[in-house]
Amino acid sequence: MFLMILILLLVIIFSYLPGQASALAKSIGNLFFSITDEQLNLRSQLRDLKMEQGSISITDEFARYMKLQRKINSFTDAIKKFDSTRTKQMMMLTVGVKTAIYVLHGLIMVYLTFAYKNEPLLQLPPEWFTPINKLVAFPTGVPGGVGVTCWIIICSSVVYRMKSFLQVT
């Protein structure tokens, strides 16, 4: 009974984890891909240049205004370059986290299938499953027994249907 509940909980957890992969990747990314002092310095210089440009009249000091505009453009380009690199890193991290979740899910389910392939999780009267007795008992082969594979499929189906039902209402 414990194993049945454990498999159900694992299926529930792994059905919701991929949806949380981006939040998890964002937390990990903020830890590893934090904004450097150089980027903070560029941003503060850009802010100062914009304030200085805002205090200048374009009609009175056009040359100075345009010189500041060129500096602002170069700082903006440098910041965009840093941001695009960080965005690419975060996207790759999100894909990696999502892939790791799916691989971990698959490995756990394969392990459970092979570890408990000889014993049924639940023993029921064999006549309940008469036409599909061997499918329900797979891989144990015990008549009336519910195998791990069948239980994983049942749990996945129930969780999928509950998720779709809860999203509709």
UniProtKB/TrEMBL annotation:
The chain crosses the membrane at residues 90-114, 135-160. Keywords: Endoplasmic reticulum, Membrane, Signal, Transmembrane, Transmembrane helix. It is a multi-pass membrane protein. One of its GO terms (biological process) is establishment of protein localization to membrane. It comes from the Eukaryota. It is found in: Endoplasmic reticulum membrane. It comes from Sinanodonta woodiana. Residues 1-23 form the signal peptide. One of its GO terms (cellular component) is endoplasmic reticulum membrane. This is Guided entry of tail-anchored proteins factor 1.
